[in-house]
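User: Teach me something about this protein's shape.
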Amino acid sequence: MPSESKNSDPFKELKWSDLQDWAGGKATAKGIKYQEEERVKEIKRTPEGSLIARVEGTNDYFTEIFLKEGKLSSLCTCPVGHDCKHGVASILEYLELAEQGEEVLASEEDPFIVKARQEYAETENSALGAEESSSRALREYLQSLTKTELIDILVVFAEKNTMLGRYLSERQTLAAESVEEIVGEVYSEIDELLEEAGTEQKGYESDAPDFLDLQVGLESLLDAGHPDELLEIGKELMGRYEKIADYDEEGEIRTKISFCMDVVFEALARSSLPVHEKMLYMLEIELMDNYNILNEHSFWKKDFPPEEWKLFTESVKTKLGETERKENPLYGSLWQRDYAVDRLIDALGKAGLSEEIIPVCEKEAEKTGNYARLVRVLLDSGQKEKAEEWIYRGVRDTREYEPEIANQLWKILLEIREEEGNWPFATALETEEFFRSPDMAGYLSVQEAAKKAGKWEEVRAAIHNYLKNGELPAGPGKTRKPRAGKGENKEEISILPGVLPGTGLLGVELLKKVKPPVLDLLIKIAIHEGDPQEVVHWYEELKKGEEEEYWHSISESEIANSVKEKYPEIALDIWKRLAEGLISETKVGSYEEASAYLRKVKKTLETSGKKEEWEAYLSGIKEANKRKIRLLEILDTLGEDRIIEA
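Assistant: First, the predicted structure itself:
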């Protein structure tokens, strides 16, 4: 990217590769086409150096392009909103005008610039502003009408608007029939809808059933003052979805039920239930939501009285006890129980019963394996030593059968040691994890901790010996150190005896034995450490071997970029192969991607004084692909790297 100075125009120094890197290949290609079609109708440069243009697309769009500290960015009133084809077209139009000697500098007060920036602001705020303004104006208008005029309007719109017509019809029926009859009809409609939803499972093709009548029926019941009746209907809907979930692959029925449940939640707020029973109802509806039906709601954020929270905690404890006696399957699965306990813990705090939280968490850790929740609660309450005891116990109990739980606890212990500044211990934890599951992310984590501990050279040597020769650290030996939180001496194994402390979590049997050399990881490390000689060494080994799985986890483009200065021939070979492979796909997007690699080939050859070789190579590609008109257009932009010459 070009650098900016007071005495130069950085836009004039832009390269084609700058546009591709900024907007992407597809947007660049479309922007070129837009500029060629003369869609940029007006363009100005502001005193601050940005470009503002009006570009003709589906509509007229205003775009502003910035070039600051060598980086392009843009805003646009189009649906994309930024860094789009309209910005690319505007840059190209500006450069064409600049090449012709035309000045487009304007003041901040220029009407065009003022209008463009007003368009940005209006686009950003239009949706919210229009909605608020429309709603306010409509209310004022309706308030000015007589009752007869309102009735006339409702009748006319009921005929034109299906949903309003259904709603008014439901209200009319409610006025004529008993609530029990209406509720019965709602249940019958649920039966019909779910039966219809299941027809495809029986071999019939059908569209997803329309739940609009049901939703309108629920709304009319609610607005007529019958919220309590909707609560059982809500449970019925949630419970019955299980039977047709397999049919609902696209989630269309799930979405429609979620709208119905929003009405049920409104009914819950208006219902006659005591607050703690409303809480229990909401919890149980959430526990029935095995398929993520429910939309987000704010029920639990409300400010309920402490006594209601206390009554709710008693209800949840009772329900959990029923589950243990197999009397209540609703709380039976692991996720349901964990979810209910999370609600219970939150409620205990709001009820002023915080002393009960830790005993509940301890019981649940032993029952469900949720040690992480207990450890977090203990740490929050200042009981660090006890928290560490549970970490070690939890890892021991879950490492073999629930490794994800063990990993959660490992991360918490690592956080503790990092907060303490105990970097030797943190390094030991990271190093053990690397030897259990070697990858680049783990290597970087070990490196960061080991450098802070002053142990990186020793740790690095052990890791490289492992990756090159398959040798695990010597021993591992033993060191005497009191286990954290225990207070008694206990032999603990160190991953690197004499270098790092034992953690008490090593588990020698879990260290991964690899087939050396681990080529993909060695290449990635060499790239990271800026060692092109090592990159080439392991890359050549990779090309000789038969380990195909390694090719899926490395980027040849990254290899080329890392060796291009010292080993340009290898980089050229990679870029050419990648570009030619993309060209063979016969897609415009692939042509643009290929052009990025070809630019690298061009720059490398020309820098080394081999311009004729580049021109011969480019001519060969054009000749081999002379029928690919769009490719040839893109290749023509490779002739000069700068968009315009100085």
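Now, about its shape. The chain has a mean pLDDT of 85. DSSP finds 28 helices and six strands in the chain. If you'd like, I can walk through any region in more detail.
User: That's plenty for now, thanks!
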